[in-house]
């Protein structure tokens, strides 16, 4: 197959992509085809001679309007999913065209340098030490794994055990302390790292989902030996922040490693609003951080960021070497030293593009606008009889309950999803069903928020009439 005659095919794909993007505002936000319908449209025996390239692209594009979810549109509030800034999407297209394996410098000096600069900008933006190790990973799951791998190495190194050489068999026991509200990715990372979940001691959280520092201090007083504490910046339900300054004090007194899951909350550090920035006070004292760029920075999936204060512990936990590799001995950056992946996509390039295009002011505006949209939606919903906002709206998350029974809330969620004006999901908060609204898309306007509130209120009024 020649590399040359691809212009027409790429032009065709570009036209399909633009049609998809231009249709996001008008289409139903949810998917409209079932699994069986999509299988009927797409499944066929794998042919012997193959099929026409353009026909394959046309077929895939034809199913997008009914088989995709408009999660990069302005009225998608499910989970914590960002959109895609035009500049980051364009940069990601370049990444696909370049097709660089970003594992080591010698394969792609350009990508190595771009990611080095993007890492420096992120540390500066977040107000973190400039000599931290930084790795671009698939998402916060792997960012948490990377930070906790460095923590595992660091706390065992302090007691004379090299876990990278000797493994965990016979190693001193590691205590892991986490909030009762910690995200599931912490548990999954501990499983991947061979620590398991039975090592986790859970610390009580307050009514907003914040770890209680008094309970943490009491817990730490009962533990001896290597200890890792996992806090969070941005509760996945409420957006609340653990009191990081007090937690850092407790960890320092105990000699514990402090890791923070800041999947979306770390971006509060970029806000122009002093009240929002203050939520993360003390975060600069942490030992490792995990965050996402495909959430609030609005770069394409997939892109998370792992940051570790100790470059030595970070590198020791991650690096790979082999006789056939050409790895740098100088200042050049080999990404394989900082992430679990070997072969990997150049996912730091869209981060560079977004940061450079937005600048400090643009990033601050992005954070603050979406926080304002969350408050707008919460305030409007709270005015409707029978609707309750279950937690303080401190960032971009809103928790809503309808009526007195769990069933009413679940029926409202289902009705909103079926309506198609917007999409959001449900959760359980302190034993009660709740609607969770996550405002993470750069394009969400005040009008989008108002339209979505109207759709939610319509659904609630319909449900409430049928339950009387």
Automatic annotation (TrEMBL):
Cofactor: pyridoxal 5'-phosphate
UniProt KW keywords: Aminotransferase, Decarboxylase, Lyase, Pyridoxal phosphate, Transferase
Top-level taxon of the source organism: Bacteria
Pfam families, sorted: Pyridoxal_deC (PF00282)
Molecular-function GO term, any one: transaminase activity
Entry keyword annotation includes Lyase: yes
Family statement: Belongs to the group II decarboxylase family.
Family matches, as PANTHER family: CYSTEINE SULFINIC ACID DECARBOXYLASE, GLUTAMATE DECARBOXYLASE-RELATED
Name of the protein in question: Aspartate aminotransferase family protein
Organism this protein belongs to: Noviluteimonas caseinilytica
């Amino acid at each position: 197959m020649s590399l040359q005659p691809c212009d027409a095919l790429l032009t065709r794909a570009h036209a399909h992509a633009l049609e998809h993007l231009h249709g996001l505002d008008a289409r139903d936000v949810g998917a409209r085809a079932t699994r069986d319908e999509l299988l009927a449209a797409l499944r066929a025996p794998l042919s012997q001679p193959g099929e026409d390239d353009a026909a394959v692209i046309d077929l895939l594009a034809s199913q997008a309007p009914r088989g995709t979810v408009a999660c990069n549109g302005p009225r998608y509030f499910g989970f914590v999913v960002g959109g895609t800034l035009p500049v980051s999407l364009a940069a990601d297209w370049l990444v696909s065209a370049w097709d660089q394996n970003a594992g080591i410098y010698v394969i792609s000096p350009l990508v190595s340098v771009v990611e080095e600069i993007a890492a420096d900008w992120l540390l500066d933006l977040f107000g973190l030490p400039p000599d931290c190790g930084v790795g671009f990973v698939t998402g916060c799951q792997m960012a948490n794994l990377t930070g906790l791998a460095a923590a595992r190495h660091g706390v065992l190194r302090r007691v004379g055990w090299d876990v990278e050489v000797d493994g965990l068999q016979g190693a001193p026991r590691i205590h892991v302390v986490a909030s009762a509200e910690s995200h599931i990715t912490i548990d999954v990372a501990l499983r991947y790292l061979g620590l398991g979940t039975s090592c986790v001691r859970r610390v009580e959280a307050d009514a907003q989902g914040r770890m209680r520092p008094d309970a943490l201090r009491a817990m730490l007083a009962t533990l001896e030996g290597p200890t890792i504490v996992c806090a969070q910046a941005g509760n996945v339900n409420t957006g609340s922040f653990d009191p990081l300054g007090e937690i850092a004090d407790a960890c320092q007194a105990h000699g514990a490693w402090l890791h923070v899951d800041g999947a979306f909350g770390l971006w509060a550090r970029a806000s122009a609003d002093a009240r929002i920035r203050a939520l993360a006070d003390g975060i600069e004292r942490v030992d490792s951080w995990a965050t996402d760029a495909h959430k609030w920075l609005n770069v394409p999936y997939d892109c998370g960021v792992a940051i570790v204060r100790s470059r030595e512990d970070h590198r020791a936990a991650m690096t790979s070497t082999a006789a056939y590799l050409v790895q740098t001995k100088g200042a050049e950056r080999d990404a394989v030293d900082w992430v679990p992946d070997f072969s990997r996509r150049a996912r730091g390039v869209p981060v560079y593009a977004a940061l450079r295009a937005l600048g400090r002011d643009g990033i601050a505006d992005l954070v603050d606008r979406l926080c304002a949209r969350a408050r707008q939606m919460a305030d409007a919903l709270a005015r409707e009889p029978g609707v309750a906002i279950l937690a303080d709206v401190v960032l971009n998350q809103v928790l809503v309950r309808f009526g007195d029974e769990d069933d009413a809330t679940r029926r409202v969620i289902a009705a909103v999803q079926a309506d198609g004006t917007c999409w959001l999901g449900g959760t359980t908060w302190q034993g009660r069903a709740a609607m969770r609204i996550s405002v993470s898309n750069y394009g969400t306007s005040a009008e989008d928020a108002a339209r979505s509130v109207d759709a939610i209120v319509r659904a609630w009024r319909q449900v409430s009439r049928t339950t009387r």
